[in-house]
Backbone:
């Protein structure tokens, strides 16, 4: 469960102590975030469609152990221009045989064509890729949905996003939105009330494990041929400046634990340092028996609201002082294999 | 420079383009955070005392490459009970021969005595370790200093900490503080004005690369014999619940890129998966020629204020939309080797 990490910081000793039998019945502790997730009813879990799931197989590690990562692509309407390019590149088997070329500590791991900057050696791209405009970095949400989503979050989380007006979860994804000023406008010399907008600009945010599209300088927006994943503290300054297209939902450790590159921006200096990508496939294109089945906890569910509250107000026995809040990326959306 | 990571997310192609000669002079771009740091005058840099610097040497990696990490211990008055224990353990060479026993993705890497939970096999601790009370998780700062520190930060950063009242930098460290209510109290039947407090509770925060003290359940506070470092998104829910004692200022990549443990909480299941710790030394106890000399950018300096503003409002050519703010952990304190 790479995205759901509600772990406690216990010493080994405490871990053993907590598991040992006690002569006295202990007072019922408040449930931990993990316990709330484990108790969530089946109806609070949402299947990730096989058509939204990439299976990336890396070369085995130095000990011969297999390495696979699953990437959930964003649903409509988020980042769909790039998502369609990525489906096209995947079905063309374009990523097969490429490599992970960059690992910058506390920032990103990035993959694609290591020779992409050399016109003579670059791997030809398949036909049909779209050029997606910069306007697509931002989508929109209905004000009513945003308000409901904020109401479900702990107080400090909903009112204190240091990077934008609001941050919240919608349809399983962390989003941020702008506050739109609703001043009356002057029409024919008199101020008329203007109906409040029913939708607002909103965009996905760069939390840990989110996957985005490498690009050059504006107006380039990247095609999806070069992708990165966040491996450190959320680089939220990238929000609205680059396309997000999904998140790693399993196997994140195979990417986050790669040796960091010694070159500028964490690029590997020697070709042999790069990790080969054996293949990338859409789960829906795999034989049925090979398709992974994953689910995320519905972010509009009562279980998720309890989970978010417990993340912001840790009441399990390890904790003395609940924070009273949490930033949006400190509330990772729980993911599981479908039971 | 493992803590100062102002990196751009550029494709290889854009990296090359940016470095190429241009026929037309380009308009002067606003400086990036890294450029501001590089231009900071010598007087804005503070030496890290050799007595505050731990040199941790791990076993070489699989390719025989040396691995060293430097840890800056916190200054007075933060966490000093544990810091003194750690100096004592270091001088007793107690950490030598122990190992890194845990690597939990997006959370912590932890080291100490892997047999510490077994009284028969645990390594005996040196005499003289203190038991530090839980009250020491929180320190205090002067209200005037906190106000000045907040004023130097971007607006959204200073007013929007999702985890506490305030977050700011003081003497080179990220801190959070509580808002104290200043209501008049009733004395002898009448409300009397109460002079505002001159100091407030404050505590260090769990940003990436911060080092803390593993512990069991309350009232245990840990001795410092078991330490962890944050390798993922800031787990700020640990603030005030566990002791922070320092931060990794160089060599962080040797810890953050370790393979994740497959056991509960990321503990390694097989002893051979643990990374041996060859030695831990105070830099001040090394021969003068072997002592590393590091500096941090004074967080009260004009350079730091410009750097923090640029982190929150990226104006370098890669960016289209400045965020307008940043959380405290998205403004890592710049560290460098002393020139």
Residues:
């Amino acid at each position: 469960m790479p995205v759901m990490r509600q772990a406690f910081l216990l010493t080994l000793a405490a871990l053993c102590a907590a598991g040992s039998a006690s002569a006295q019945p202990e007072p019922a502790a408040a449930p931990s975030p993990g316990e709330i997730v484990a108790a969530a009813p089946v109806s609070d879990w949402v299947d990730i469609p096989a058509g939204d799931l990439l299976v990336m197989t890396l070369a085995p590690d130095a000990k011969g152990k297999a390495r696979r990562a699953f990437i959930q692509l964003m649903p409509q309407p988020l980042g769909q221009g790039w998502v369609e390019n990525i489906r096209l590149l995947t079905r063309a088997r374009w990523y097969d045989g490429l490599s992970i070329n960059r690992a910058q500590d506390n920032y990103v791991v990035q993959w694609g064509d290591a020779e992409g900057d050399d016109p003579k050696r670059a791997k030809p791209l398949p036909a049909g890729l779209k050029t997606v405009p910069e306007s697509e970095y931002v989508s929109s949400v209905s004000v009513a949905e945003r308000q409901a989503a904020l109401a479900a979050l702990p107080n400090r989380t909903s009112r204190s996003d240091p990077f934008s007006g609001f941050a919240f979860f919608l349809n399983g994804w962390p989003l941020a939105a702008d506050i739109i000023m609703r001043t009356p406008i002057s029409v024919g010399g008199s101020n008329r009330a203007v109906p409040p907008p029913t939708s607002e600009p909103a965009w996905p945010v760069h939390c840990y494990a989110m996957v985005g599209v490498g690009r050059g300088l504006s107006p380039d927006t990247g095609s999806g041929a070069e992708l990165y994943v966040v491996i450190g503290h959320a680089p939220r300054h990238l929000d609205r400046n680059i396309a997000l297209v999904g998140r790693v939902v399993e196997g994140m450790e195979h990417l986050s634990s790669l040796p960091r590159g010694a070159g500028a921006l964490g690029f590997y200096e020697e070709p042999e340092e790069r990790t080969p990508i054996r293949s990338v496939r859409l789960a829906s294109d795999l034989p049925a028996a090979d398709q992974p089945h994953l689910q995320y906890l519905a972010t509009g569910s009562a279980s998720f609201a309890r989970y978010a509250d417990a993340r912001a107000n840790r009441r399990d026995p390890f904790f003395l002082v609940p924070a009273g809040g949490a930033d949006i990326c400190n509330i990772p959306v729980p993911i599981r294999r479908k039971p």
Q: What stands out?
A: Helices of chain A lie at 12-19, 33-38, 80-91, 143-151, 155-159, 252-256, 302-312. The first helix of chain A runs from residue 12 to 19. Chain A touches chain B through 88 residues (CB under 8 Å).
